[in-house]
Amino acid sequence: MEFVRNEGQSLPSPAPSSSLTAITKSASSLPTPRHYPLKPGSQKEIAFINYVDSKILHINRRYAKKFSSGRDETDEEARGYDDFENAVEDLEHVLDAIWVSGTPTLQIPYLLSLAGLIAEFLPSFPFNEGPTMHLVDKMDQAFAILLSQRKDSTVPFASDASNQLVSVTDRVRIRSVIESTRVIAVEASTKDRASADTQDASEGFTESEYEELTSADSNVQSRNSLNMSISRMYERSLSILGDSLG
């Protein structure tokens, strides 16, 4: 039985806002997964688990070194993350590897781990809309595809919770980390906007420069665009979870 869809079978995206389209239109789709899951206990499965575990450990170490006073600035592998975009590069690499495995029993817990890392890392960096939305959109695609799968394709999706590929427990966990991430993103972006406003107010501007930087229409449009993007984080997954969890 094939548990995951290939790229040609991916879920249709909801009609996004113009701002979200601008951010994600160039984003890469999820890579094509294996046609069959890794065999439990096989050497390939063991090698995959060791590989992903080592990459996640490396990411956690680089994040921890962000706060270390003894950071090694000469060794790229040993450096702490300077901004969230650096972390996104490593997280996305692991996400792609997880998806290629084509093994839901491994994909689900590892995706939950990555989602938790995203939520943990976000408050520690200035909010960077582009990389953040790019990574979250790929995570959303992955969760949504798994959440829409059935163990037995001949049984209607909503007729039996036991036939859903993702367990009720994991669905609750996915919803929890999604909702936490959305709240954290709002708080992080709001904090950065407040900091920017304070800095602008404390700097000396000519009257014309000040009017240009604080143009009401431009400011409101920018904030509305960002708020709309954040409100659509994990939108596909939440839509499916709403139907299955009530």
Automatic annotation (TrEMBL):
It comes from the Eukaryota. GO terms for cellular component: transcription factor TFIIH holo complex. It holds the Pfam family TFB6. Coiled coil: none annotated. Residues 10-20 have a biased composition (Low complexity). Residues 21-31 have a biased composition (Polar residues). InterPro entries: Tfb6. Residues 1-38 are annotated as: Disordered. This is Meiotic recombination protein DMC1. It comes from Endocarpon pusillum.
